[in-house]
């Protein structure tokens, strides 16, 4: 399936997922007014979204390796749609936070799954271009979400209706993606990162040890007095004999002049 049609499917998935994820950032002012939040709780609202994303990022990467990108992307976009519905109908602030946690957690499928997917479908010799096309979906999706939320909020339907529109878009794109994208299989098993091996690697141990900032003792050349180890721009040291003779001559000068008189 190495063709631009596959790149379009992956890019469309990324665009829709970004619309779902970034919609809450455009709707913070409406959420604050609806639930009577303080500025601190508005920050908590955004943090809840990012928290779900951060906590599930490693797990989603492992799921892509284990089961392939197709089921992870389908489940991720469905979860984003369900989370958007939860935001739209949330009766209380804790319920809103739970829905936003789901939105953030399911958006964690985007980075590992789409990166693998776009490389699998990119035409030969066009991988970087295909990756760029896919990444446009991130910025375009965030901009489109702002237009949707603020535009629909200005109508009689209110800001909650914008999240229902976002959810409907996610469900439709999920169906299109599932019908048109085949994907690659995974290993069939989930695996966690081998953190111990990562910490024991030479690069990690050197970068985390104090010696990495000063270098190992053996890397510092011993000081020598030979001319071969001297820098070509170094000024040659003055002779000890000359240094001692200078003061001595200055002291003897007056005595010699007295004798001459």
Tell me what the structure shows.
The protein is mainly alpha-helical and 261 residues long. It has a domain at 4-182: Up-down Bundle (Growth Hormone, Chain: A). It contains twelve helices and no strands. It has helices at residues 4-26, 28-35, 39-67, 69-89, 93-107, 110-121, 127-153, 159-180, 195-200, 202-208, 211-214, 240-260. The protein is globular, with a radius of gyration of 33 Å.
List the SSEs and their pairings.
Blueprint: H1 4-26, H2 28-35, H3 39-67, H4 69-89, H5 93-107, H6 110-121, H7 127-153, H8 159-180, H9 195-200, H10 202-208, H11 211-214, H12 240-260
Mean pLDDT: 82
Stretches where pLDDT falls below 50 for ≥5 residues?
Answer: 211-229, 241-251, 253-261
CATH topology category name of the domain at 4-182? Growth Hormone, Chain: A
Decide which structural class fits the backbone.
Answer: mainly alpha
The percentage of residues in β strands lies in: under 5%
Percent range for helical residues? over 70%
Roughly how many Å apart are the termini? 111 Å
The main pleated sheet reads as: none
CATH superfamily of the domain at 4-182: MFS general substrate transporter like domains
Task: Give me the Rg, rounded.
Answer: 33 Å
CATH architecture of the domain at 4-182: Up-down Bundle
Shape verdict: globular
CATH class bucket of the domain at 4-182: Mainly Alpha
What is the number of E strands? 0
What is the overall number of helices? 12
Query: Order of SSEs, N→C?
Result: HHHHHHHHHHHH
């Amino acid at each position: 399936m190495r063709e631009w049609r596959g790149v379009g499917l992956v890019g469309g998935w990324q665009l829709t997922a970004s619309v779902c994820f970034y919609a809450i950032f455009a709707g913070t002012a409406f959420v604050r007014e609806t639930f009577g939040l303080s500025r601190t709780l508005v920050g908590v609202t955004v943090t809840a979204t990012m928290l779900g994303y951060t906590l599930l990022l490693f797990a989603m990467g492992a799921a892509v390796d284990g089961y392939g990108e197709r089921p992870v992307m389908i489940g991720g976009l469905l979860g984003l749609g369900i989370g958007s519905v939860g935001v739209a109908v949330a009766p209380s602030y804790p319920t809103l936070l739970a829905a936003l946690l789901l939105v953030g957690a399911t958006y964690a499928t985007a980075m590992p799954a789409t990166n693998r997917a776009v490389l699998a479908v990119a035409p030969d010799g066009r991988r970087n271009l295909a990756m760029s096309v896919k990444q446009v979906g991130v910025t375009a999706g965030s901009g489109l979400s702002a237009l949707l939320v603020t535009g629909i909020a200005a109508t009689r339907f209110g800001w909650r209706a914008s999240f229902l529109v976002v959810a409907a878009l996610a469900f439709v794109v999920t169906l299109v993606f599932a019908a048109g994208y085949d994907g690659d299989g995974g290993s069939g098993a989930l695996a966690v990162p081998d953190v111990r091996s990562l910490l024991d690697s030479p690069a990690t141990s050197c970068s985390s040890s104090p010696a990495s900032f000063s270098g190992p003792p053996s890397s510092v050349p011993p000081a020598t007095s030979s001319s071969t180890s001297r820098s070509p721009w170094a000024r040659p040291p003055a002779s000890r004999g000359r240094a001692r003779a200078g003061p001595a001559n200055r002291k003897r000068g007056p005595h010699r002049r007295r004798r001459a008189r």
